[in-house]
Amino acid sequence: MPSTQAPSTTDAIAVHKNYRIQYPQERYFIKQPVAPGSYLGPIDASLPNADKVPLLFQPFQVKDLTLPNRVVVAPMGQFSSQDGFFTDYHLVHLGSFATHGAGLILAEATAVVPEGRISPADTGLWDDKQIPGLKRIADFVHAQGSKLGIQLAHAGRKASVKAHYEELPESAYWKDNVVAPSGGAEFQWGQSHHIPRELSIEEIEETIKAFGTAAARAAKAGLDTVEIHGAHGYLIHQFLSPVSNHRTDRYGGSLENRAQFLLEVIRAVRENFPAEKPILLRVSATDFVEHLDQPSWDIAQTVQIAKWVKEAGVDVFHVSAGGNTAKQRIKAFPGYQVPFAERVKREVPGLVVVAVGIITEGKQAEEVLEKEKADLIAVGRGFLRHPNFVINAAQALNVKAKFSQQYEHGRI
User: Fold this and answer.
1) CA of 265: how far to CAs of 269, 286, 294, in Å?
2) How many Cα atoms within 13 Å fall on the side-chain side of residue 359?
3) Distance from first CA to last CA of the chain, Å, rounded?
4) Is 234 assigned a catalytic role?
5) Per-domain residue ranges of the chain
6) What are the backbone angles phi and psi of residue 65, rounded to the nearest 5°?
7) What's the CATH fold of domain 32-410?
8) Backbone angles phi, psi at 374, to 5 degrees
9) What residues in the chain have per-residue pLDDT under 70?
10) Are 55 and 366 in contact (CB under 8 A)?
11) What span, in angstroms and rounded, lies between the C-alpha atoms of 373 and 201?
12) Which of 234, 251, 336, 407 is catalytic?
């Protein structure tokens, strides 16, 4: 009578000897001989310039990180964590971008301390126990041929707010421990946010150290890069902008002083992350409050700090905009933030620049690269609408891009 016993691990390895395999079984990966999203040739070789490889589908290297294409998945908060841990949701969410061919995937804003979360449902990297869940995602992404980074963050005065789709008990929030460069009612971001208290020098130093230890954990998880979150009105941006920073000590006043917190964070991260791996910095190029006729954050200051951060150890400069005040006025349209990236690239030679901001399709992305406005293209919500953004862009550019082994039958 045939045995009903399940095959042993040894039997399974024998059956799958042609593939790279890791056990336990949930860590088993089909080998991808070529990374999804890689250029394989033109779809139609008879078209004009069909032999020219679009820049979007040319590999890109910075330090020891080589990307199969120049498409970056921008960090997008998913508010799907408990106590800061990465979950199966994040594995599927981030892993899907790898199977669909994204060159580099940046995991969402991940808090370096518990009180630095935007909401209680944010991911964190303040505890060694949070490393394994992140490593599981990194292993999966790498098995597909893609690369993974994480955005290290502190929300500052924008912390402890409700996720837009989940109601949690009041005990889950820390409304009396929301911090900022400057405290008091005048520094409350908006009516849905809490009144922050001012960080002490000792707390600033502890926060800088927390960025460094979070970077060390990212390295232990096997990540390819880390991105420091200095944009969208979160803590680093709050220090940079005179709208939100009225300090009179060495962290406030002049641009040099307001940039000091950021520069010290960069040094802490660089000291704790492998030297051969690049560090990214995401910034907002402007506060979009020119109509208020008061000192604020603008592109000229952004260009200046780009020069400083390059010297401090940043390899890639990711240029976004806005988010530091509810009084901002933004006229959004396709590519509206690209001119900010273009100016940084023009005025800071040698710094790799990422453009982002309603880049919706392949030809638009390729034009940004062709005109040397940026080196890499980041897409956020476009990936939420179309996880196969890379394949769609390839078709628009007459590129036959590699599908994952499992998805090859889906090729048109």
Assistant:
1) 6, 21, 28
2) 31
3) 47
4) yes
5) 32-410
6) -90, 120
7) TIM Barrel (3.20.20)
8) -165, 170
9) 1-26, 412
10) yes
11) 39
12) 234
